[in-house]
User: Fold prephenate dehydrogenase from Pseudoxanthobacter soli DSM 19599.
Amino acid sequence: MTPAPDKDSPVVSSSSPATGPLPFGRLAIVGVGLIGSSLARAALARGLAGEVALADADPAVVARAAELGIGTSFHADAAEAAAGADLVISCVPVGACGLVAEAIGPVLKPGAIVSDVGSVKAAVVERMLPHLPEKDRFVPAHPVAGTEFSGPDAGFADLFEGRWSILTPPPGTAEEAISTVAAFWEACGANVETMTPAHHDLVLAITSHLPHLIAYNIVGTAADIEEVTQSEVIKFSAGGFRDFTRIAASDPTMWRDIFLNNKLAVLEALGRFSEDLAALQRAIRWGDGDALFNLFTRTRAIRRSIIDVGQDTPSPDFGRRPPGK
Amino acid sequence: MTPAPDKDSPVVSSSSPATGPLPFGRLAIVGVGLIGSSLARAALARGLAGEVALADADPAVVARAAELGIGTSFHADAAEAAAGADLVISCVPVGACGLVAEAIGPVLKPGAIVSDVGSVKAAVVERMLPHLPEKDRFVPAHPVAGTEFSGPDAGFADLFEGRWSILTPPPGTAEEAISTVAAFWEACGANVETMTPAHHDLVLAITSHLPHLIAYNIVGTAADIEEVTQSEVIKFSAGGFRDFTRIAASDPTMWRDIFLNNKLAVLEALGRFSEDLAALQRAIRWGDGDALFNLFTRTRAIRRSIIDVGQDTPSPDFGRRPPGK
Assistant:
């Protein structure tokens, strides 16, 4: 089984396939956006729970989820969905997860496991744990999967297939709770790895938060250049720019909360990025072609590794063609 | 027909479908990489020339091009390919285009048009024009299309379909030469726009050169962080990082030459990017959620415009799924 993290070793283990008490009697999902609605669809499609109770603070989202039929009950109130559930998963932006924990804490049935899907983990533990009655049954998780779209219509059952879900149980979490959450993610098609919240936040600052920040920034910069029209930026975006616009189209609330809640790790990653960029700027200014060539050669190898482990497609240009082609 | 650029108006016109003396008797392509081999395939597939003569300085590339059968004759010597051609297109990295012009200049038949496909244009004019016998028959072009792969095997006939090719004829270029080159690109499936070399270099610094520089830089930064292993960066790359690795896998020689040959515009774009990034860094440090949210909302609109004009696919996550899905 997956052990709880140890202070001296940030990455604890890759999980082996875990067995757990699946299917759940009742699974509750609070927040029915891209991730929440994908989890709901996966749970229904794969028979992972008898009941799939969905809650959202936005009445329009509750109504739409019911229309889509992606759960077995639909609630405006998180506590109502969580009551009687074996596993409750918060799928709201990180800034709102404390409110969810506060709402569900009092109604959780004994032994219920609580989890979440937030993209930062130390802040989630800090915000949610104080409100939960059984501290050893909280297993924070982060599925490293998504698209640039948001809302209940954007989700799909296969979203987690072949992707990683990172569990970050605080010290003292019950082994059985950890293995149950691991089994749930594996049943959704994901690979599971366990690490400390702090290490997670460092790793994701590099692999996700910094790339999003850079993408948002470059799209903003391009929009503001007065010598080049917006229409030119859009027309000639196939030269590279459009790759950045995809992730710069991600949900603004979710990403605001991520940056505000992983401040130190993001600022550290950003500091290194800016240092390296200054060196590259200097190489361009002084015409140091060798420095440029060496970096550009090194980065190719990383792309190959990502394709080798199945985390991206090897099709040229992501396989995308103009519409109709 | 497409007029030659005027000093006071950087963007001269979008072309209307031009007619020209297609098919050519002989088309010569010097440099058989991704773009050169795609042009050769497009010309053959669409019957744009009676002969398609291919030349490359690398004997292995010449042999491979012959093996692939993507031309009608194959040459180690650029002059041999260019002799007797109606249109000669240099498809070598920008740093080598002066050598190509020097080699072909003496053998060009009277009235032959010379063009290129370089990603920077002012430097190309400066390097090639002095070696060409008929100054008014040089029509530099830049197809804004490509993939992260290189070499003769990477090309395909449809690469230019629905993409833009930007012509940057120097003042005084013959109208008929410009319209012939425009007709050639349109016959390859591209849209054609004409602008000055200087304006092209500004526009592409933003839409292509800066994005590549940023992508190369972030991939380098991620590889160097010692608290996070390379294997973690690769495993969890689906959080955003992998989008950057695609363009950071582009040809190192080509991109070194671009940065060295569009120095001023790239440094200017980079300066703005860094300024904007510093402001974003400050917003994170001081917890200014509104500043973050406002930027992240603004950038979504640009993504939508790029999809609306057909320069990217609206499929979530570029439509890519793990291998086998």
Chain A touches chain B through 113 residues (CB under 8 Å).
